[in-house]
Amino acid sequence: MTTNESTEQAVHVVLVPGFWLGAWAWDDVVPHLEAAGLVPHAVTLPGLEPGTTTEDRARVTRDDHVDAVARLVDGLDGRVVLVGHSGGGTVVQQVADRDPGRIERVVYVDTGPLVDGASLAPDLPADAAELPLPGWDEVGADGSSLDGLDDAALARFRDRAVPTPGPVARGPVRVTNPERLRVPATAVCCSIPSATLAELAHPGPPLHTELGDLADLTWVDLPTGHWPMFSRPRDLAAVLVDAVS
Question: Contact 86/226 with Cβ under 8 angstroms?
Answer without folding.
Answer: yes
